[in-house]
Design goal:
The chain is of the alpha/beta class and about 290 residues long. Helix content is about 40%, strand content about 20%. It is built from 11 helices and 10 strands. The protein has a 6-stranded mixed β-sheet with strand order 1-2-10-7-8-9. Helix 2 (about 40-55) crosses helix 3, helix 2 (about 40-55) crosses helix 7 and helix 3 (about 70-80) packs parallel to helix 4. The site of pyridoxal-5'-phosphate has 20 residues, from helix 2, helix 3, strand 7 and helix 8.
């Protein structure tokens, strides 16, 4: 299986937060693996186990050109001796176009570039059938890695978090919402705040569609996307630089937006004094802007 490095909990001291009487800890899960970092490790764990158990020799998955999931899947497949295929959105791209794709190719991932139009069929059975005809014995993982095996992995992680750390509220980034779903399932008596990396109000419905029973301990915060997925402005860049100087590296797509949301809410006196807040650092630092 994938190697796992135990990860630290970082205590954050910040004058205004101390004044508000809240305690903030950051679980540095970004440090769990050099390439399969943060939540991607947990999302892939049972997918890899399943693929191997069922006798597959190849993983196939989908992503955009800067996808952390593509990056992680390429490295994970290599480590457990599976082949990997990445179906990448955009037929104008080449693997030399950016560090994510270059890295994936260096791990042995076979990259196939498809038009945006074809890419839209990524979840269609018919498309999967044709992929199987082309590539043979493939274990298909959806875009972003979110499926029942991913939720199984992040739920396990949620149980581990609670055994290790005392907290009342968990802050976590949301893309597909798979990570947050597993975590919320693991901790029914805690609040899970999901900071959406995307613009729009659809993430809560996507989360509901992933599970059978409604989750009433989860809330999606839709106001901290900074213009949309992977968008940023000078305020966010300055925020990242501030936290770099305090030894907490964040990236602009997910984790900086989570801490920004948390910081804003603390300053608005959203939390009662004494609240113990845990932020999950979900990784992705390979995509940090220079
Ligand atoms: C992929 C990713 C997420 C989003 O996870 P979902 O399960 O899709 O919500 C959050 N943070 C980082 C760093 C990621 O790479």
């Amino acid at each position: 299986m994938l190697t796992y490095r135990p990860t630290p909990v970082q205590v954050i001291e910040e004058e205004e937060w101390n004044n508000a009487g809240v305690n903030v800890l950051v679980k540095r899960e970004d440090l769990n693996h050099p390439f399969v970092s943060g939540n991607k490790w947990w999302k892939l764990k049972y997918n890899l186990e399943q693929a191997i158990e069922l006798g597959y020799d190849t993983l196939l998955t989908f992503g955009g050109a800067y996808s952390n999931h593509i990056y992680a899947t390429a490295a994970a497949a290599k480590e457990v001796n599976l082949k990997s295929i990445g179906i990448i959105r955009g037929d104008e791209l080449k693997e030399v176009d950016n560090p994510t794709l270059l890295f994936a190719a260096s791990q042995g991932m076979e990259l196939h570039f498809v038009s945006r139009e074809d890419y839209r069929n990524k979840n269609e059975n018919q498309f999967h059938t044709s992929l199987k005809e082309n590539f043979g014995n493939i274990f298909i993982i959806p875009e972003g890695g979110t499926n029942a095996f991913a939720i199984q992995g992040t739920e396990e992680f949620g149980i581990k978090l609670q055994a290790e750390i005392e907290f009342d509220v968990l802050f976590v980034a949301g893309g597909t919402g798979g990570t947050a779903t597993g975590l919320a399932l693991a901790m029914p008596d805690k609040k899970v705040k999901v900071v959406s990396a995307l613009k729009g109000n659809f993430l809560i419905d996507e989360i509901s569609s992933l599970i059978k029973e409604p989750l009433n301990n989860i809330e999606v915060l839709n106001d901290y996307h900074f213009g949309g997925y992977a968008k940023y402005n000078q305020i966010l860049l300055d925020f990242i630089a501030y936290w770099d100087a305090k030894q907490l590296p964040l990236e602009h797509v997910y984790t900086a937006k989570v801490l920004y949301a948390l910081d804003s809410l603390i300053k608005k006196k959203y939390f009662k004094a004494g609240t113990k807040i845990l932020m999950l650092h979900s990784g992705g630092l390979q995509g940090k802007l220079a």
